[in-house]
Amino acid sequence: MQTESDVLTGNKELILSTSIERIVTGRDFALKQIEQLIEQLDAISRLTSEVGGGTAQDWAMRSWHHYESWLTEKVDVAMPVITRNIDRSIWRDLMLKSGMLSLMDAQAREQWQTNLQEGELPTISEANILSTFEQLHLNKMDVFECGIINVFKGLSWDYKTNSPCSFGKKIIINNLVSHNRWGFSLNWGWRRDQLADLERMLFLLDGKPIPDNRGDISTRLMEHIRDNPAKNIYEDEFFSIRYYQKGTAHLSFKRLELIERMNDIIAKHYPGMLASR
C-alpha cells in the first residue's frame, strides 16, 4: 500500500502492491460459487417445503431475527444485488489502497461515497480497474489542488486577517468551540472537517504520512479541550490555536513555507488575485 505522499509526489501507478488479476479472478470465482449456493439452497427449500418443513426463509433465520437474506431469493433477483455489493466493496478497498481518498477534502469524499452507494459502478475487470486508476493518476494533482481551493473558499471573510486572496500567517475560524460554566468544548460540524482538511493538505505538502481520523487535528484538539477545559490555547507542529468564549478560534501557521506553497496553488487557480508578497 502506498503512503499519501507517494500518491502526491511519486509513482506512476496508484496500486503498487495489489494484484489486479488476483482480485478479478477471486471475485469471478466467488460469484459463481455464490450462484451455485443459491441454487442449492433453493433446491433444499423446495424439498423441505414439500415435506412440511418450510423454506429456508423459515428455518434458516434465527428466531426473532427476521433479517432477509439475498441467499434465499431467486438467482435472477439475488445475483445482481450481491454482485453490486461485492463490486462496491472492491472499489472502496482499491481506493483506500491507492491513497486517493487522502487527496480529497471532506466535500469530495462525501460525493465519492454518494456515487459509490447510488451511482452506476463499473464492473470489476482488469480493463476497468486499469483505466480507472490511470485516469485517477492523471487527475491526482487536480484532486489535491481542488481540496486546497475548497478549504480556502470555506474560510470566513468576516475578518481582515482572512485575506480573500491568499492564506495569511493567521486565519480566524467561526463557531469552532463553545463555552459554558464548565469551560470549553469543541463543536461538531463542518468546521471540524475544514480543520482536518487543512491539516491533511499540510501533511501532504510536507511529504509526511497523514494521521487517520482517530489522530487528526480535530480529535487531538477535542481531547486537549476536554482534558484542559479552562485553557484556551493548543499547539502542535503545524498550528497554534487560540480559542475564545464567543466561539471563534485564531489559528496561526507555524510552517509558513507550506502556506506559501498553498498560496501558489491558489494563485494558479485565481491568476491576478493573489496579493504581491
Describe the structure.
53% of the residues lie in helices and 9% in strands. The chain is α+β, with helices and mostly antiparallel strands and 277 residues long. The chain has two domains: 4-139, no CATH class; 154-269, no CATH class. Strand 2 and strand 3 form a beta hairpin. Helix 2 (20-50) runs antiparallel to helix 4 (75-98), helix 6 crosses helix 7 and helix 6 packs across helix 9. The longest helix is centred in the N-terminal third of the chain and has 31 residues, at 20-50. The protein is elongated. The two termini are 40 Å apart. Mean pLDDT is 81; it is low at 1-5.
Give the topology, please:
Elements: H1 4-9, H2 20-50, H3 56-59, H4 75-98, H5 106-118, H6 126-153, E1 170-173, E2 177-180, E3 183-186, H7 190-205, H8 217-227, E4 233-235, E5 239-243, E6 249-253, H9 256-269
Antiparallel strand pairs: 1-6, 2-3, 4-5, 5-6
Helix pairs in contact: 2-4, 6-7, 6-9
Pfam family, one: DUF4942
Protein name: DUF4942 domain-containing protein
Domain DUF4942: 83-271
Describe the structure concisely for a colleague.
The protein is an alpha+beta fold and 277 residues long. The chain folds into 2 domains: 4-139, no CATH class; 154-269, no CATH class. It is 53% helix and 9% strand.
